[in-house]
Amino acid sequence: MTVTVVPSQQVLNPQLEIAGGRRLSGEVRVSGAKNSALVLMAASLLTEDTLRLRNVPPLTDIAGMGEILASLGVGVRRGSDSIEMDGSGLNQSAPPYELVNSLRASFFCIGPLLAKLGIARVPLPGGCQIGTRPVVEHVKGLKALGAQVTIEHGVVSAVVPGRGHRLKGGRIHLDCPSVGATETLMMAAALADGETVIENAALEPEVVDLAGLLIAMGARVRGAGTPTIRIVGVERLHGADYAVIPDRIEAGTLLLAAAITRSTLTVGPVITDHLGAVLTKLEEVGCRLDIDGTCVTISADQIRAVDLRTQPFPGFPTDLQAPFMSLLATAQGTSVITEHIFENRLQHVGELQRMGAAIRMQGNTAFIEGVHRLSGAPVKGSDLRASAAMVLAGLAADGITTVQGLEYLDRGYADLEGKLNAVGATIRRVG
């Protein structure tokens, strides 16, 4: 198959200019889930057949993963909303450092590479600088499956010793329910000899989506979405045609865009079970929600303060903490947000303060006293979700807000400004 990889697009110092104060109305479509699509792409390393994914968002992270897979010998062909990967040419076990350094999802490759080739050398992951995201759980789990793992000079090297170089099923207890570790070990176990049991597994919808793909490829997986996942390894996986779930974080961001502009907006497709904690908090702040199948219509008028703390699924997602803080900066009363997942995920506070938000910090807790109106200002997103938070704040602010840090925003949101402009926002990309 011809290798056609969409290159990562970079514009010199791009920024968004947002004219605040516009109400939104209409319908907006949610793209496929980035966090799911990236790991599903890595699963293409498990088969020599063609794997076709549909509902894949056009993001720089997706392009980056495509480049990584191509460097390993996988044929990659991208369509408008799909991607085909042919693993028959897999011939490398070490993706180049320059490709993986900025994409944390690249580390997902270590599990399927070990399962398929018996050897892997993958640099430690990069990505947004939101705090320590160690690979200890990944390494511990791979060792439990029989791999020998060393970490030197920022590179994780793993090999499966013995005849046949095949991983062996085993029992793994995760000290914390890491999504990445759960997914890495699921892929590794899919081709292992015997049964693997992952205890204290992550419950996130993206884990369930990976299980769905693996099953479609012929894997034997039970229990995804519960704390105990059982995988009986098979000798071979085949290709599949599979649709990525809707992006629950993008859906939440779009619902928050309606709330912060005190608008009525229909957002879909949404799997409401994936957004339970977020929908509950939106109702608590005073939003009205009308759920019709896979569409959610939100109406907002007055917003009142609430308290929230980020937690693993099904708790409130850390990826929507920053966007929700932008909303609460305009609420009536004082809200309290406690970040329990990443220690550096409150860097957006200073930028919101530049726009007139009244926020006081104490450790990993933010106390937000709502103000009547935010003011447009030049701000910069320090990570993917902080960038989205700045866009939301700009929608509600008085005057013009310029948002820098779009290299982060474009990693996780497919044409966010285009979607918002289509429902009434005034946003222009310049630079």
Unreliable spans: 1-11, 127-132
Order of strands across the biggest sheet?
21-22-1-23
- Give the helix tally: 14
Kindly, what is the distance between the CA atoms of the first and last residues, rounded to a whole number of angstroms?
A: 37 Å
Radius of gyration: 22 Å
Give the percentage of residues in beta strands. 15-25%
Helix content: 25-40%
**Average of the residue pLDDT scores:** 93
Q: What would you call the shape?
A: elongated
What structural category do the secondary elements indicate? alpha+beta
Number of strands: 23
List the helices and strands and how they pair.
Blueprint: E1 15-19, E2 27-29, H1 34-42, E3 50-54, H2 60-71, E4 75-78, E5 82-86, H3 97-100, H4 110-117, E6 119-123, H5 136-144, E7 148-152, E8 155-159, E9 171-173, H6 179-190, E10 195-199, H7 205-216, E11 220-222, E12 228-232, E13 240-243, H8 248-260, E14 264-268, H9 276-284, E15 288-292, E16 295-299, E17 307-309, H10 321-328, E18 334-338, H11 348-354, E19 358-362, E20 365-369, E21 378-380, H12 384-396, E22 400-404, H13 406-412, H14 416-421, E23 426-430
Parallel strand pairs: 2-14, 3-13, 9-10, 17-18, 21-22
Antiparallel strand pairs: 1-22, 1-23, 3-5, 4-5, 6-8, 7-8, 10-12, 11-12, 14-16, 15-16, 18-20, 19-20
Helix pairs in contact: 1-2, 1-7, 4-6, 5-6, 6-7, 8-10, 8-12, 10-12, 12-13
